[in-house]
Input
Amino acid sequence: MDNSVKPKLIMNHYIGDLMDENPLPFIFLERDKENILSVIYVNHAAASFFENTSQEPQHFFSTEVWDQLHVLLNSLEVEKHTLHSSLLISLQNQVFSIGISVFILQSKANILYGLTMHNTKNIIVENHALLEIKEKYLSLLNHNTDSVFLVDERGMIQYTNVVAGKILGYDLDKLLHQPIEQFIESNSLGNFQLMTKQTLSGYPAELQKCLFQHANGHYIYVYLKAIPINDQGNVKEFHLVLRDLTISANDKDQLYYLAYHDHLTGLWNRRALKEHLRDNLIDANNRKGQIAIMRIDLDRFKLINESLGYNYGDDLLKKIADRLSLFINKSSNLYRQSGDEFVFILKDKTREETSSFAENILSELSKPIYLDHQEYFVTASIGISMYPLDGKNLDELLIKADQALFVAKDRGRAHFRYFQEQMNLSFPNEALMESHLRRAIEKEELSIHYQPQVNLATGEINSFEALLRWNNRKFGYVSPMQFIPLAEESGMIMQIGDWVLEEVCKQLEYWQEKGYRPVRIAVNISPKQFKQENFAIKIREKIDKYAITPNSLEVEITESAMTDMQDTFAMLKELKDIGVVISIDDFGTGYSSLSYLKKYPIDIIKIDQSFIKDMELDVKNAAIATTIIQLAHSLGMEVIAEGVEKDQQVEILKSANCQKAQGYFFSRPVPIDDINQSYMTNQP
Ligand code: C2E
Ligand code: MG
Ligand code: MG
Output
């Protein structure tokens, strides 16, 4: 070996000689700016060890050794400055396993590595065939992202790849030639031994969870797979593949992100809101500063969501989030509180500044939004509470902003309101109302009113709509428009819906037993109820339980319940098979395609009251209502007009051949006693 490169190292003369004559093999390698590795110095011991290899420095190692060295040196740079490992080197059809240490001598400009070898006596001699196979698998093992051990039948580790050292935190020489069991936690040992036994008898085995000791002393959860190496029917060694089940640092960042951000919009979430607000309040308290909490809720978002479908709803929310993000700066941060509700925390803004901030938001949101090339208009309502004026603690401030929002919604929407003390009394927070609603059934606060549906041609009344009423001791009479959404959001609608169905069936049974003329009752079904898999079964059970005629019961479904074609069709067919009557409520307010009318077995269409309202003045509304009536008739369906309040409306509907109408013009929804008295008792 030509050692003319030696002066490059600028070695002290004596040290140079010492190195040359050292019985331990020494090799220096250099990595240049192009990342090319080359051998630049080899001492006598190393040269004589490799005496049968090429004399060219670049070809000093075979590609097999270069491969291993690349992996080792790469991990050296990232991890630490010295690494102990082993190399498999083939010389003259023999494989030598030698322990090596590699270290960085100089890391400026060109990197200089030192490499020493030890355990050169510990040599495995392999036959030629095995050697070839080893070569092939070696690079696979070295580059594997899982830890791989070669374990012999005594349980001693004969080989580990670099990843094993990294994951478990050991220098490779601390693992090599050690019993593998010493790293296994005592409670996992029994299972581990079973796995080993099975593997040595020739079958692969795995352990889903095993505790392995990390170099730092703690245990990490790992998945283990043991694969026997079959040598002419005998298993003397096996590969043990180990996968770390704990969370990587990267995953931890990811988890942090997920925990504090809203998945849909990427904004901070409710959890972040609470934590940030808590910090901001402490800070404001120390500085005698001010904080404004601004809750923004989209008006009638539910309608858009349900009529256009959740994908468009999501799209809309993302667009709204983008617009609101324009207002984020050093003193204002934005959060998505829930569905269609966003919150701003504003720091140190005067009341005037806060008001103009809210006005700007309202005007930004009032610009049209495009979804699928269609123009939509969205408005929002805003409720604001101020620290320290309205309260000192986080929950109190959030609730007060919510109460202000509630008032804004109640008083016409699309504007902002500050919290005022009297709101406390008249507008309770939703959480409180929800907890009262939970006990409404057992406290017998719910009742049903019935609204007659009038046959326009004959004036006869032989059907009614059941409408739920809630009279609470604290809140008094609460409108279904207010508590039904609450029941839907909290899931209580299932229980409440069941209760309504039960009451209605009981009522029908009572009338049947009395021998009254056959009448029908329509029940409102919430989308959540309709989407239950066993909804039709529930209906059948009720019909059987009260032995009522199936077509005396009508289910009113809204278009928003029919989002999935297949499921909807299957459910409607089941209901039709039972024999109940099916109607579409609030028809015309959804944006869904009309083609479903042809496909689904629907009996009745109920025209939404918004088309009936002012139809005598508004030509457009009259035209829409008339068209819906004609369309329904051409498909063989019956039509009921809702919200009829004036006789002119009755006349228009009659001339369009609308079969039935319901509304204050004929009767408001009334308690069952009134129905019994006015419509049932006198008739046989
Ligand atoms: P809906 O099913 O469209 O019911 C018709 C609503 O219009 C009822 O309001 C009714 O009182 C009202 N109404 C009837 N005639 C007139 C009229 O001439 N003029 C005006 N302005 N309104 C009229 P209500 O009872 O407040 O119910 C509101 C909504 O709450 C219902 O709309 C329905 O969607 C829901 N709802 C009521 N009861 C139940 C129930 O038991 N279950 C479910 N899931 N929802 C229900
Ligand atoms: Mg209805
Ligand atoms: Mg309706």
